[in-house]
Amino acid sequence: MIQNLQLLRAFAALNVVLFHAIGTSASYDYETNFISALKGWGANGVDIFFVISGFVMLLSQLENKRSVKDFLVLRAIRIVPIYWLLTLSVIALAIFTPSLLRSGGVISMESLLASLGFLSQAITGKAPVVYVGWSLEWEMLFYLVFGLSLYFRSWKATLITTFSVLLGISLFTSFLMLLEFIAGMCIAILYKCYGWRSYGKLALFLGVLLLFSSLLDNVRLLIDNRVILWGVPSTFIVYGVISVEQIRSTIGKLLGDASYSIYLMQMFSIPAYYKFLTALKIQLNNDLLIVICLVATALGGVAMYLLIEKPMLSFLKSRIFAHKNASKAKGI
To answer: Which residue in 53, 326, 278, 307 sits closest to 177, CA to CA?
Structure first.
């Protein structure tokens, strides 16, 4: 495992949480003073995640190529169960306690089915029931395209197919963030096939510099393309963190492992937090309140990872692949 990637996953997840916390804080009239300077910026966590996904998916297959079926099954049990669990939890809230949802609890059957199928944006043109799942729909598309391309025995054919299909979809839908998956895969090729790990510190410095320069209004006005504004820095950062000396951090690794749960947890934790503050009319420094929200969401995500996500993933893996190994042993 590349330790620094776990730290980067943690940063990306917490950055997205901060992004939504700032927006929710303002909507509840808890305007911040200093943290408001980061308004909109934390969304770059998704771009970082996309580049990491492209890198990790290809690297893992280059090291241990799986069949199309095994790859897709592994991705499905990693992403789907807990996402469905939270989606159905929102539905339960909409039915039994609609007042807790700002939407009023009105969720159509079409929206539910589209959300469960990771097709909300394609079918309804709206965000899924678990609104942060919009990025997961593109992740699942990437997994599907890359997974099916593993059918080819030749890596050249696999890569050409994946790159061509993703590029075609990107141009057809104008969703250029798909190019970030390709960027991650290119890093994996350089890293694994060519052992190219030179200039890691320079790449990391340049990526961080570009990412933080996007905080400047002039830079945002000059660059209105997200892939250039955040995708390019994310590419440099991912290449940089895998190339420099690895940092061992127990807390960082745990947050990285729990990044998926943290990313999903914010759907519940942030609105609940500000509803609680509003109901009790709690008045503290609004910047401090956002920091508390960020920490609480991280802790909640870690708890969900340890108590639900990790056990569920281990159970499904053991059941599915134990059955497969047993079938092989019997010659089925």
So the answer is: 53
Residue with tokens 């990437």: 142
> Which pLDDT score, from 0 to 100, does residue 332 have?
46
Cα 38 to Cα 253: distance, rounded to the nearest angstrom: 25
pLDDT digits over 15-59, tens only? 999 999 999 999 999 988 899 999 999 999 999 999 999 999 999
Kindly tell me the burial class for residue 189, based on how many C-beta atoms sit within 10 Å of its own C-beta (0-12, 13-18, 19 or more). middle
Token pair for residue 206?
């340049």
Residue 54: CA count within 13 A, CB half-sphere: 30
pLDDT, tens digit, 9 for 90 and up, residues 142-170: 999 999 999 999 999 999 999 999 999 99
Task: Indicate the pTM of the whole model.
Answer: 0.94
Cα 83 → chain centroid = 12
Q: Pseudo-torsion of CA 144, 149, 150, 154, nearest 10°?
A: -170
Q: Is 216 helix (H, G, I), strand (E, B) or coil?
A: coil
The CA distances from residue 107 to 37, 128, 269, 285, in Å, are 34, 10, 20, 35
Say how far apart CA 55 and CA 234 lie, in whole Å: 12
Share of the chain above pLDDT 90, in %: 82
Both tokens of 155, joined, read 């890596």
CB 171 within 8 A of CB 163: no
Q: CA–CA separation, 106 vs 312, rounded Å?
A: 30
CB contact set of 111 (below 8 Å; sequence gap of 6+):
120, 124, 126, 128, 129
Specify burial of residue 299 (Cβ count, 10 A radius: 0-12, 13-18, 19+).
Answer: middle
Say how far apart CA 173 and CA 78 lie, in whole Å: 26
